[in-house]
Amino acid sequence: MYGKGLRPLSIATVVAVAAALSLTFFYAPLDADQGFVQKIFYLHVPISIVALCGFVAGGVFAILHLRSGERRWDAYSYVSIHMSVIFGVAVLITGAIWAKASWGHWWVWDEPTLVSFLIVFLMYATYYPFRYAIEDPERQARYASVFAVTAGAFVPLNFMAVRMAESLVHPRTFATANGGLPGEMMFTFLVALLAMGLLWVTLVKLELTAKSASGQLKRLRRALDAPAPGGGSRIAPEVS
Amino acid sequence: MDFLPLAAPALPLDEAGKYVAGAYVVFMVLVLVYVSIMAAKLQRIERELKELAGFAENRANGDQADADREQVSADV
Fold first, then answer.
1. Which chain A residues are Cβ-neighbours of B26 within 8 angstroms?
2. Which residues of B touch A13 (CB under 8 A)?
3. Residue B51 CA to chain centroid, in angstroms?
4. What SS3 class is residue A31?
5. What does the alpha-carbon distance between residue A204 and residue A101 come to, in Å, rounded to a whole number?
6. Residues 6+ apart with CB under 8 A from A42
7. C-alpha span between B36 and A135 (Å, rounded)
8. How many helices, marked H, and strands, marked E, lie in chain A?
9. Candidates 2.60.40, 1.10.3470, 1.10.10, 1.20.120; correct CATH number of A6-169+187-221?
């Protein structure tokens, strides 16, 4: 059910990622201040935006789960958060590399943008132990949804707080009163953002497909393990 | 914060290149590792599904054979 449209989506993602890489290295001009190091911007910022939007999407799916009680929304919420945590790891690593190249430090503790993202990331890292500490599947899904809604609401609030804070070194690229990005850079950035968004959606769909197949397999095994009508119990062989 | 160069000069290309390559390679490796894990998971599911399908087929054949045997003994 989830695998429908996965192939065209994967092809679109590969094309978009290839286009984004080509534009980044062959079309976008070198930044006057940072030079070649600024190319990390076209990777780091899109994955940050996609990761944060993914966390919010996880919260929205959790609301749908709490409203309807349908387990598929819980699966969507779980996979969205899971994928955003993976993207979050990439954000922290690429950000640290960029910080080292630009500022000479891997991490700056009094920079609100960096620390706030780390707080969001660590908060979502607790989602897994929280979720799997509950054994009953119904309660697990419900409590995880409450967590996802609360944490999802925290993400935009945190973002707004950081925007209002006085930044020391981290630039505010899209909110400067005078201009912002030049045309070629903005176009490249938007293509990169689209590519990362497509990558996120494709990977979410891939994981949902695997989860769905795994669930169907379990149901099939249970059905085969059930005693045959009119006969003794026939246990299906254990498949490793 | 005086240790942070707010207007640091751009790194030369040979030095900047390794940082840019590092960032992109790390991300690509992360995605590839994830996709490989998912591919292995899907392969395992496919293998298990085949084994279960074989088991279900054998079971259906066994049921048919039992029914045939019961029919024969009833006729006798």
1. 90, 93-94, 97
2. none
3. 18
4. strand
5. 32
6. A20, A23, A24, A28, A188, A189, A192
7. 29
8. 7, 0
9. 1.20.120
Which residues of chain B have a CB within 8 Å of the CB of A102?
Answer: 8
**B19–A110 CB contact, under 8 Å:** no
Write down the residue that tokens 């960096």 correspond to.
A114
| A75-89 pLDDT per residue, tens | 999 999 999 999 999
Q: What is the mean pLDDT of residues A9-28?
A: 94
Verify whether the Cβ–Cβ distance A101 to B16 is below 8 Å: yes
Separation CA A9–CA A16 (nearest Å):
10
Per-residue pLDDT tens digits for B11-67: 666 678 899 999 999 999 999 999 999 989 989 998 988 888 888 888 777 777 777
Q: Could you give the CA distance from residue A212 to residue A150 in angstroms, rounded to a whole number?
A: 26
